[in-house]
Amino acid sequence: VELSCIIKSTVTPDPRIEWKKIRNGETSYVFFDNKMQGDFATRAEILSRTSLVIKNATRMDTATYRCEVAAPSDTKTIDEINIQLTVQ
């Protein structure tokens, strides 16, 4: 499964990108501090700096995934997108 977080433009040279998983009201980190967290460390990766790829997705991966981008040098310093993933 590939979830994309597309950054249209930024003047910040290296914006901070984080991915979070929200399931049953609980939020956990997927990608934080430039590395995968928890069980995602062995089965997920970041492509092109912004897309999250989850390998061997299971129903336990069904959740809302939030991509947060922080670009301190830009007019809009922080933005986010929520993507609902349902694994059948």
Automatic annotation (TrEMBL):
One of its GO terms (cellular component) is plasma membrane. GO terms for molecular function: cell-cell adhesion mediator activity; integrin binding; protein heterodimerization activity; protein homodimerization activity. Signal peptide: none annotated. PROSITE patterns: IG_LIKE. Pfam families: V-set. PANTHER family: JUNCTIONAL ADHESION MOLECULE C (PTHR44598). This is JAM3 protein.
